[in-house]
Amino acid sequence: MASQNQLPIAIPKDLPQMEEEINFSERAQWLRAAVLGANDGLVTIAALILGVGALKHDAQAIILAGFAGLFAGACSMAIGEFVSVYTQLDIERAQIKREKATMAGNGGAEEAEREALPNPWQAAAASAIAFSLGAVLPLLAAAFVEDHRVRQGVVVAATTAGLVGFGGVGAVLGRTKVVRSCVRVVVGGWMAMAITFGPIKLLGSSGFEM
């Protein structure tokens, strides 16, 4: 009786792990594009707002420049991700054909490999949507502040909070260390904003006007 009761306990322990690995493999196809797009949108538009704000203090001009950057960046991210993933897809399809030629009769493995292939349309959509969502955060932060100095500080604070959030979400979904991921994303975002703001500020102090 005891041995019979142990069998159904041991079997289910392995099944969730197998399902979890399969789900993680499928999730990784769009997770990279979504996290990269969100971080890129957040940092790009925040750096654009800070850079334009270094020369022009007009809130309307800054917001218009931000929305122009949002649409251009979302399209650019989607096209770049589509081309990149489609190239990867072609390479993996060619690899499957070569393996099929050398290992005939293994239809089940071939079907599993086809299901695991990346989807370029899904990656492109995830990248564009995530870029737009990330870009909205600094735009909203800048839209409701009149004083340009306060606006710059609010944008930096909102962008930092967004970077921490995106870094944490990416770490949780990707099963990596949360603190390390957040620090890496925040430091990278600060560097991008500083590189954008610094040279444009120097141009403004030298007499250049937009």
From TrEMBL:
User: What Gene Ontology cellular-component terms does the record carry?
Assistant: vacuolar membrane
Check the UniProt entry and state the signal peptide residues, or none: none
Which Pfam families is this protein grouped with?
Answer: VIT1 (PF01988)
Its placement in the membrane is given as:
Multi-pass membrane protein
Keywords, comma-separated and alphabetical: Ion transport, Iron, Iron transport, Membrane, Transmembrane, Transmembrane helix, Transport, Vacuole
What's a BP term from Gene Ontology annotated to this protein? intracellular manganese ion homeostasis
The protein's matches in PANTHER family, at most eight in alphabetical order, are given as: FE(2+)/MN(2+) TRANSPORTER PCL1
Q: What does this protein do?
A: Vacuolar Fe(2+) uptake transporter.
Q: What is this protein called?
A: Vacuolar iron transporter
* Species in which this protein is naturally found: Salvia splendens (Scarlet sage)
